[in-house]
Design a protein that fits this description.
The protein is of the alpha/beta class and 338 residues long. It folds into two domains: 212 residues, Spore Coat Polysaccharide Biosynthesis Protein SpsA, Chain A; 116 residues, no CATH class. The protein is built from twelve helices and eleven strands. The strands form two sheets. The protein has an eight-stranded mixed sheet with strand order 3-2-1-4-9-6-10-8, sandwiched between helices. The relative contact order is 0.11. Keywords: Membrane, Transferase, Transmembrane, Transmembrane helix.
């Protein structure tokens, strides 16, 4: 007898919180509607007042698939929207699958997540967000970096996973809601708090989705500056997260600190004309390059593409954006304390 038919699969709610995802909306929605999941599942989408045509396109899907797709308009950031869905009864099943609107799920995605949570006894299961084929040059380059964070993670229990691809027991979200004061980093905070509460999070490489990264340089610049800006607040509020995790390893977190110290040393060298500061500045830069080289070598080893060499300028450009964002974040903290 077919194992899938002999096993009773539970009903699932697929929950997505979106804003301005018109570029990927059809790939995302079509992939969710084509899941080969043996059980019942519904799709709940919370749209945060999109202005690019996302809302209108979602209304078309909801009208075409009544009872299958539920659309809610609620101005919010992602952690607020996720909590809203749980607290207001939009999720009526015991398991809820999270996926972002810039992702595309293969037909086996939902079933793989459910199989894993049933077999491992985990409370949360997550999978990779990999770069799809057919994307532009910038997305490919960004993908080389982001894909490695998943590909270097072994199958097993972890302490953090991005909420773009997760299956969670509803009771976990009731007891450990997302921190609504965090615009970024809330998944890292969530992972820490659910682990502290005794819940188990499992990483299953086969439960992958395709993730469409920022497609323009302007979008990437804005994303990285905002990311660093809000991470200052996050690490100030949650200092435990600064030790790193399976998604943001310590070597990555050290780089902006070393780069910032290099800039500071260079400024002191310029002001004082003391060559010691110049030597220290160069030393910090060399340390950054060594850490970056470790990552580049790993990417070349796994992906086997010379494109990985272009990660050097991407990493340095990203560091500059992080320093800018970090300064803005520090200014935010200082001005709010006055």
């Amino acid at each position: 007898m077919n194992k899938a038919k002999s096993m009773k699969y539970p009903s699932i709610t697929i929950l997505s919180t979106v804003k301005n995802v018109r570029e990927t909306i059809d790939k995302w929605m079509t992939s969710l509607l084509r899941q080969d999941y043996p059980g019942e599942y519904t799709i709940v989408v919370i749209d945060s007042n999109s202005t690019d045509g996302t809302k209108e396109r979602l209304q078309e899907y909801a009208k075409k698939y009544p009872g299958k797709i539920q659309l809610i308009e609620y101005e919010s950031i992602q952690p607020q929207a996720l909590n809203y869905a749980i607290q207001n009864g939009l999720v009526k099943t015991e398991l809820v699958a999270l996926i972002d609107g810039d992702c595309e799920a293969p037909p086996t995605w939902l079933r793989t997540l459910v199989d894993t949570i049933m077999k491992t006894g985990a409370d949360i299961v997550g999978g990779p967000g990999l770069t799809p084929n057919g994307v532009n040059f910038l997305q490919k380059l960004i993908g080389l970096d982001l894909d490695m964070r998943f590909l270097r993670t072994k199958r097993g229990f972890v302490t953090r996973h991005p909420n773009m691809n997760m299956l969670i027991k509803k009771e976990v979200l009731k007891r450990v809601p997302f921190d609504e004061s965090l615009k970024v980093g809330y998944d890292a905070d969530f992972g820490h708090r659910v682990t502290q509460a005794g819940y188990k999070m499992f990483f299953e490489p086969k439960a992958y989705v395709y993730h469409y990264h920022r497609s323009t340089l302007k979008g990437y610049i804005k994303q990285q500056i905002n990311y660093a800006r809000f991470l200052v607040k996050f690490y100030f509020k949650k200092p435990h997260a600064a030790k790193g995790d399976n998604i943001n390893p310590p070597v990555m977190l050290y780089q902006p600190l070393l780069f910032g110290l290099s800039i500071l040393s260079a400024i002191l060298w310029f002001i004082s004309n003391n060559s010691i500061f110049g030597i220290v500045s160069v030393g910090f830069i060399l340390a950054v390059l060594i850490l970056q080289t470790i990552d580049v070598i790993y990417v070349i080893k796994i992906k086997k593409t010379p494109l990985a060499l272009l990660l050097y300028p991407l990493y340095m450009f990203r560091l500059i954006l992080w320093v800018i964002g970090g300064i803005l974040g520090i200014l935010d903290l200082v001005t709010r304390r006055r």
